[in-house]
Each structure stands twice: as structure tokens, then as C-alpha cells.
Specification:
This protein has 10 helices and 9 strands. It has 386 residues and is of the alpha/beta class. The chain has a single domain (1-386), classed as Rossmann fold (3-Layer(aba) Sandwich). Strands 1-2-3-5-4-6-7-8-9 form a 9-stranded mixed beta sheet, sandwiched between helices. It is globular and about 60 Å long.
Length: 386
């Protein structure tokens, strides 16, 4: 088995207003996801007013203590988000690509936007696919496949948007520079599913990602069909999804990478005091999670999808694992993202699972972090491809 070392960049804790991004060109709201920087303080103050002394005490304390506080912070986050949304409008369509015609890159690669039939989702589900420079010229050649999962309120087209760095150009540049081999890269539409199956079985997003999508890609795009040539990454909600899926199915993926992965602390994300459960803000966030994990939440089902517990099991074979975050991530003070990823680092270390964990001082959340470090993560994901 190949040996890997834990690589952690340590620095002081992030500071500043909850939710602040260090990148002025990457406004934050819920998709990658929180609030526009100009409204963060206003929105947080609104949340404090709505939820009174408990929230104020938490804010003044400066740290978020206990598992129940972890879930309570989600309510403050939802209050701030809801206020910003009501005051400043719905999400902009610039988070999703409008023009779905094929993108032709200068080096010969293409990005196509397609749909595929899905029994798991009972619909035709969209995806985008990056095909490398030689794909159209060498009709018998097969290619390794990297799957990449988006965050909340983004979709399969978001990675190609100007605001997120036109990542398809960076992928091609890495191939042409021979930093990575020629790969097929697939971005499926995962909605706001956290890439989990619905508790009632009506929508099976995990099954779609793990079973249907690879089968379709390998049958229709000359993708290699073995574990050693298949990897999965993602950002934010997609970082959670990529790590969770690879840890649940280490026999199907050779490597996984999560940028700014949402790792929930505590018993489960909805474990809050009874008096909080009537809040419309709790209902907003709960509206995303209840279809996935049941109402009331099925603790056993959550445990099966919790990256922290999967890491502690140590039953991950020789899966290569990488994840990172920035100290200026706007979730560090709201949903304790920094504490979550550090807890994952500890869990893997204690289970003696080799992995790579990086902390980037002063860097933000989501696609902005991906754009800055896609070379590191793609080289990691592709290192076993031959």
C-alpha cells in the first residue's frame, strides 16, 4: 500500500465578522454559501434580535461550546441568510450558466452540458463533462474519470462561470503542462441533497452518484471502469458529499478531495433545544435535512452518513484522502467549519488513516478556495492514474 503523510499548514485562528470573505470578488450567500459581505453584520444583528439573549451570549463568548450550541449556530446562520434574502432578493442566475452550448477550449478540450436518464431520481438529470484534448482524435483511447460535486444552490454548470474562475481552463492547462494525465471530469447536478439518499426512498442521490452516473459515463464516454482510475472531489456541501461517499464506498474510488467540506459537529445537525424547533429559520435549514434523514431525524441514518464516524471506523482501505479549508472561511464562526475539519483530521489520525489536510491562512470558502488550489487537489486525485 502506498504511504501518505499528513500535511497540515498551521496558523492562528481566523478572525473578523462571522461570514466575511477575504476575496472581494466572491460575494457570499448560501450557495457557496452565506451572505453578501456588505450585509453580514446587519444580517447577523437581525439574527441576534430575533433570537435574543442566547445568541448574544454565544456571540460575546467568542467560541461555540457544546454540541447543542453547534446546532444552534445553524439557526443564527439561517436567520441571517433569511434576512439577507428577503432584503436583497433571490440568488442571482450568475451562479449557474445560462448558455449551455459546448465550450471549446484553446487546447482542444471541450465541456459539454447534457442530461442522462436516472431511475434513482425518477427524472432526466443534468451533468457537465470535460473531455480532454485527445478525446476527439483518438477514438479507441480510454481515460481516468474524476467526479466533482458542487455546493448548495449551485449546479453542474457553476464551475464554468466567470465568478468561480472558469475552472475548465485550469484543468486543460494542467493537462497540457503534464501536471496531470488526460482525464474526463464530470460535474453532476446534485441539487441541495448533500449527496445522500432521501430517507423515504423517493430520491436516491447517493445511488445516482455512486452507481448510475459512473455506469453511464463509462458506457458512453470511454471512461475507465476500475477503481484505480476513478476519483471523487467536491466543494462545501459537495466536499461533504465527496468525502462521505468515498468513505462509504472505498472499494469504488481510489482518492477523494474535499475543499471547504461541511463537517457537522455534535450528535446531529438538528439536535437543538425544543424551544428552537418552532423557529422559521430552523425550519428553513431543517427543510433541507429532514427529507434526507427523516422527521424526526433518524440518528442511525445520520450516523451512516457522518464523515466523522466513517473516519473513526478506520475501515477505509487504501483510499487516498485530502481536504482543506481557509481561515477566512465565512462558516468558521457560524457553523464551526474550522472545528469540523480539524475534528476530521483528528479522527483520521487517531484511526491511523493516512491523509492530507491543509489549512490556508486568510483564504475563503467554496469555489474561491477551489480556484486557488485546484492544482493541489487534482494532482492528489490523479496521482494513482497510470
Amino acid at each position: 500500500m502506498t504511504s501518505f503523510y499528513i500535511h497540515t499548514l498551521r496558523s492562528g485562528r481566523g478572525t473578523g465578522t462571522a461570514g466575511r470573505s477575504s476575496d472581494p470578488n466572491v460575494p457570499g450567500h448560501m450557495s457557496d454559501y452565506l451572505l453578501p459581505p456588505s450585509f453580514q453584520s446587519e444580517a447577523f444583528d437581525h439574527a441576534i434580535k430575533e433570537h435574543g439573549k442566547q445568541a448574544a451570549a454565544l456571540r460575546n463568548e467568542g467560541t461555540w461550546m457544546t454540541s447543542r450550541c453547534s446546532a444552534f449556530v445553524l439557526i443564527v446562520f439561517c436567520a441571517a441568510f433569511s434576512y439577507s434574502r428577503a432584503s436583497h432578493g433571490q440568488f442571482g442566475e450568475e451562479r449557474r450558466r445560462g448558455d449551455l452550448s459546448t465550450i471549446q477550449l484553446t487546447g482542444g478540450s471541450v465541456v459539454e452540458f447534457k442530461d442522462m436518464p436516472s431511475t434513482a431520481l425518477a427524472c432526466s438529470q443534468p451533468y457537465s463533462i470535460f473531455l480532454p484534448p485527445s478525446y476527439s482524435r483518438q477514438s479507441s483511447k480510454t481515460y481516468p474519470v474524476v467526479y466533482f460535486l458542487h455546493g448548495l444552490n449551485n449546479d453542474h454548470t457553476s464551475w464554468t462561470e466567470d465568478r468561480y474562475g472558469n475552472l475548465q481552463n485550469k484543468v486543460e492547462e494542467m493537462i497540457l503542462a503534464r501536471k496531470i494525465p488526460e482525464i474526463i471530469m464530470v460535474h453532476p447536478k446534485g441539487d441541495n441533497s448533500f449527496y445522500c439518499n432521501y430517507a423515504d426512498g423517493t430520491k436516491l442521490y447517493e445511488d445516482f452518484i455512486v452507481q448510475e452516473l459512473p455506469h453511464f459515463i463509462e458506457a458512453n464516454y470511454r471512461g475507465m471502469n476500475d477503481r484505480s482510475h476513478r476519483a471523487i472531489g467536491g466543494t462545501s456541501m459537495g466536499g461533504f458529499g465527496a468525502l462521505k461517499i468515498a468513505m462509504r464506498f472505498p472499494d469504488r474510488y481510489s482518492a477523494t478531495a474535499g475543499h471547504s467540506p461541511i463537517i457537522f459537529l455534535g450528535k446531529n445537525p438538528l439536535d437543538v433545544p425544543e424551544e428552537m424547533k418552532a423557529s422559521r429559520f430552523f425550519q428553513f435549514f431543517g427543510g433541507i435535512l429532514r427529507p434526507l434523514f427523516g422527521d424526526p431525524l433518524d440518528q442511525g441514518l445520520w450516523d451512516k452518513n457522518n464523515p466523522l464516524l466513517l473516519a473513526r471506523s478506520g475501515k477505509l482501505g487504501n483510499l487516498k484522502i485530502h481536504f482543506d479549508y481557509g481561515t477566512a472561511d465565512r462558516y468558521n464562526q457560524t457553523i464551526r467549519l474550522a472545528e469540523g475539519v480539524k475534528a476530521l483530521d483528528r479522527a483520521l489520525t487517531e484511526a491511523k488513516v493516512p491523509h492530507s489536510f491543509k489549512e490556508y491562512p486568510g483564504e475563503p470558502h467554496g469555489w474561491a478556495l477551489v480556484a486557488a488550489h485546484i492544482e493541489e487537489s487534482l494532482e492528489f486525485l490523479c496521482q494513482g492514474f497510470k
